[in-house]
Amino acid sequence: MYNRKLVLEDGTVFLGTAFGCLDPVAGEVVFNTGMTGYQEILSDPSYFGQMVTMTYPLIGNYGINDQDFESFSPSASALIVKEYCEVPSNWRASKTLDELLKAKKVPGLCNVDTRALTIKIREHGAIRGMIADISMSDEEVLEKLATIPVLNRHVEHVSTKMVYSAPGKGHRVVLVDFGVKKGIIRDLTARGCEVIVVPFNTTASQIDQLNPDGVVLSNGPGDPKDVVEALPMIREIQEKYPLMGICLGHQLFALANGADTKKMKFGHRGCNHPVKDLKTNKVHITSQNHGYEVCKESIENTPLNVTHVALNDNTVEGLEHKHYKAFTVQYHPEASPGPDDASYLFDRFIENLN
User: Fold this and answer.
1) In what residue span(s) does the Carbamoyl-phosphate synthase small subunit N-terminal domain sit (predicted)?
2) Is 268 a catalytic site residue?
């Protein structure tokens, strides 16, 4: 039954069965608490370099369709599940999850005790691991894992290399791609915006040449402190145009204005995270995917105000500038998958453009 295993860097071993690509793979092991959305999760660039454990026990039951990808190809390094459904039932499905993973060379591991693995990550924190053939000794896998360098500069791998646009007859919005999800473009174009997507290292002067009405800083993977070249651009742009930041864009906005960020123990990944809007006192259920946070204590002497907090752990979930029309959120208002509680933030951005 078992032909593969996941070996964590502390020596813990989880047995499993391979599906998808059969290549060995290493990466940071994280978990997502969503009941649905494995296709969007796999194709979310924010998961670049990570092996995603799904806490929901049955995965693959509605297959894969051609409409719900968040990027062209999966960014996650591997998918770890309890039970893989080989025969999906969904009129939209064009292929199985196994077929997608084989085609895109992404390893899958099923029949894993994902409850025990999730508890391990919650107690230990995000941890590196390697999926390998069961014939390899645990010692061999650990030696191999130790030789694989830890990835950094994740954004360089997922950001667009060229400028492209999505047509619209309304406001022109420059979207800085740190690992953008298709859902952000969809929500902006649904509001009539012409969206011009630019690489992560685009300068403020290059953005000026595009004559935008506003700027959006996208989500993306990795440590925000690896993207220091974006900080001068943000400081200059926020003075000229209405600005909105999402996830990594939120963290970079904080760094650009003098706040600090740090790695979380195991992060927020799922579509059921409650967040309180401090202006309205309303609670929204949000979709989240991040392993870093803005340090609340670092905001005190900056030109920023905290606008949203996570109710599970009281971390910072939203910021606004005291002097400019610039605001950011740590979660995903485009919510793919997830609830649409936070879609009003795009309307707020459009109001700022008006």
Assistant:
1) 2-132
2) no
Parallel, antiparallel, or unpaired for β 58-59 and 83-84? Answer: parallel
CA distance 229 to 227: 5
251 is in an annotated binding site: yes
Burial class (CB in 10 A: 0-12, 13-18, 19+), 1: exposed
Q: What DSSP assignment string belongs to 87-126?
A: S---TT--B-HHHHHHHHT-EEEES--HHHHHHHHHHH-S
Q: Quick one: how many helices (H) and strands (E) in the chain?
A: 10, 19
What's the pLDDT score for residue 34?
Answer: 93
Q: CA 41, CA 20: separation in Å to the nearest integer?
A: 16
pLDDT in tens, 116-175: 999 999 999 989 999 999 999 999 999 999 999 888 889 999 999 999 999 999 999 999
247 carries an active-site annotation: yes
The catalytically annotated residue of 247, 250, 273, 317 is 247
Q: What is the rounded radius of gyration, in angstroms, for the C-alpha atoms of the chain? A: 20
- On whether 331 is known to bind a ligand per the annotation, the reply is no
Please give the average per-residue pLDDT across 19-47, as a whole number: 96
Could you give the percent of the chain with pLDDT greater than 70? 100
**Does 292 count as an annotated binding residue?**
yes
Average pLDDT for 310-314: 97
Question: How much is the pLDDT for 177?
Answer: 98
220 is in an annotated binding site: yes
Mean pLDDT, the chain, as a whole number?
96
Q: How many angstroms separate the CA atoms of 109 and 240, rounded? A: 48
Is residue 334 part of the annotated active site? The answer reads yes
Q: Which domains does the chain have, with CATH numbers?
A: 4-151 (3.50.30.20), 155-353 (3.40.50.880)
d(CA 199, CA 186): 18
Q: Residue 188 annotated as binding?
A: no
Q: At what angle do helices 248-256 and 230-237 cross, to 10 degrees?
A: 80
Please determine, for residue 287, whether its predicted confidence score (pLDDT) is greater than 80. Answer: yes
Whole-model pTM: value is 0.96
